Amino acid sequence: MPGVDLLGRVAREVRADLNAARQRDPAARGVRAIEMLATWPGIQALLVHRLAHALHGAGVPVLPRTLAFAARTLTGIEIHPAASIGEGLFIDHGSGVVIGETASIGNGVTLYQGVTLGGTGFSTGKRHPTVEDNVTIGSGAKLLGPITIGHGAKIGANSVVVIDVPPNATVVGVPGHPVRVDGRRVEGPDADWIHLPDPVADAMRVLSARVAELERMVGEREGEPPSPNGAETNGHPLRPVQGRNPAGG
User: Fold this and answer.
1) Domain boundaries, position 239
2) Is 101 exposed, middle or buried, given 0-12, 13-18 or 19+ CB atoms closer than 10 A?
């Protein structure tokens, strides 16, 4: 029967979610399943979403969105009924997590509080991220648009990611930059945090040099001696360029 099959699938997925929480949350060690279902917001939100998603796929009106709204009110986690979520998702704490309508999440994914899988603009169709298996997304990270986060990638806390992420990469920053791929530091400007292009600092440097030049010209007209050591040429650097590269991990 379709109803029995639906409930059986939801039960299997919830068991996988419970196992994922036990494996990845130290606070869940030794806690019984009934207690986790009653008190773990991430588990509760997923349980409701599994049911709402199945009803949405079956074409049931109103009820899937009503269930999603109730789950958001109870847990602070908002998951659109149409979002596709694989087995073993672990949402740690979970408050503020938002998963959009066309988002797709693979198996074994971990999300921390405040993560957004959101869209950009007002386009229709696929407009939310695709997160492949075994991805970890840190607190407050924002993944926007129809991008793909590759298998095993790690997204740092508070990163804003708007482009595809390679498999096994580590991404940090705003906007997000890969700093490691397959455990190695990425070569090229994206990994060189000290020497990344900075148009604001470049403009300030040009203005500083121009002000120094004007001061020199005014000083010459008023008969003042030039600044010692040629200090009027370029001023002081606006940011350090020495020391350990933070992209080195």
Assistant:
1) 193-249
2) middle
